[in-house]
């Protein structure tokens, strides 16, 4: 039987150093009878009220002027439901005692969390509205196994860590408490006395909404309802589907002209979504929208992994944006960052006084490139936190896929480190085996729990099998960014055309490894920052040649095997580097029709044409879908190839990367008949020279080891797409 606590215990409780508040507070069987104890600072009078009858049963005696009350309830032997009538500063409040409720975590949840295999840890950890024993409130739980004491503090208790110390579930290192009367919209944090006795105030790692920076509190709010992925959305992600991604930083796509302030989620739904649809893209990819403290990180240093940033509105308004995109027939991808996190005091760093989420050794736990910390993927609870987060965005927000940032930095222990600055794995190798296991587990989990969704790896090395199944030794991603293709082709395009003949293989080399992965061709935000110039500004020559080069390059990119990605602004030839602090240069489209309009129309037409013709996308990852017709014409810097669908239909693509028109350019083809242009990047509406080809018929003239051939005029600095007309 529990006895009256001694003075040392009461002092420890008020000092916030008592780790087992349920042993002191609440209702207890004692030798003297049924005793109720409460910690109520600043209260002047406290009564025990029987909930079922509303009768006052006993007045609690103030045993300590700091607010510790206790009384034996007369003539009662069995535990019963009760409330406390508390007089604070002359006002009486009827409250439910947080310490009359039993343990919260269910046995199966506890087992799975401890094992690190809980599919949806966010349904258990964090803050969740609940009704327990007829009482409305919020149940809080947080993993902090090495803390001496954890309290939940917030709007509901004057941010006073003495009022709601939590129960410690030692078997899994989780602290929990049900707080009656805590409701949605209230702010909270966890007050932690860490392993060294230091006080830490931490945001909730599982918070579903958070304050706008520079404020850092978490907000109580319910989980969004689960969503089902429609068959149409699944089809838009498929390997044989046309996928053209518009990559967007929501804070700088467009801003209010009068004050340079961001558009809200609702305004973006009304402006961005229709624009992307009109331009013919199939997907919007958002740079990270997880809550983050520093604008200049573009979201790539996230701390609120479960909270959409409040910069553009509420969580529900973000859901509105996602739904608007889906209603417009667009899929939504999120840039997801499990590779590192910032060391801000309110976040995950040294969460309970130990390196709980990160490694203790900076050779494993510190990112030199970004001045951030690295997750300890080998700790079950950490990998579960992240894998659960991936599913959360797909299942609770209807996100259609995740682009995973900086995969190479995760899977190699020596990434960007010199000799002696990294720790080998237990086999002595450089691979981060724990991170590899985490990625495989996450991708496998998403494939089973969210069928139809996809993951896309930003992976910059030749690691084998990034987009191959884990069962065959791969990482399990659906797609991989083809950064090699991007670097090679941009290196080629920035050359003066007179020198391109000496670097001809830069454009064709991508086909040497094209079928080793399921590739996406990215012209991302990374290519228009840090002094790299805009894509337009990398092109050589005068203004006419710059725009012609860019148009020819886009025509090549949209025709080349692989899914497409273009960063915002690239579609209208943004003139200068991207600046996250201001809007894109929409003024370039003002003042009458110009070269920028021409590029914008071309990208729109490329998207719609690419989507319309199955040969351009159906066999991206099948060698049968591509064939070179001319690959060795270095002298003229000309390439010609065929794209093909499952039924054998072909589209011919021809590119001339010099400013010299090539008249009567003959090359062999596979199929006889009439061929007509469906894309010509040099046409007048794109502000080209309008060198066109009428419908042309094949000739019975052998060429390039083929019996039939075509003779075309190849416009200067241009790419053509030709389709065969029906007989």
Overview of this protein structure:
It comes from Pantoea latae. This is 1,4-alpha-glucan branching enzyme GlgB. With 727 residues, this protein is α+β, with helices and mostly antiparallel strands. Among the domains are: 90 residues, Immunoglobulin-like (Sandwich), CATH 2.60.40; 114 residues, Immunoglobulin-like, CATH 2.60.40.10; 102 residues, Immunoglobulin-like (Sandwich), CATH 2.60.40.1180. The chain is elongated, with a radius of gyration of 31 Å. The model has no long low-confidence stretch (mean pLDDT 94).
Based on the model shown, name its key terms:
single chain; 727 residues; alpha+beta; Immunoglobulin-like; seven-stranded antiparallel sheet; 26% strand; carbohydrate metabolism; Glyco_hydro_13_N; EC 2.4.1.18; 1,4-alpha-glucan branching enzyme activity; hydrolase activity, hydrolyzing O-glycosyl compounds
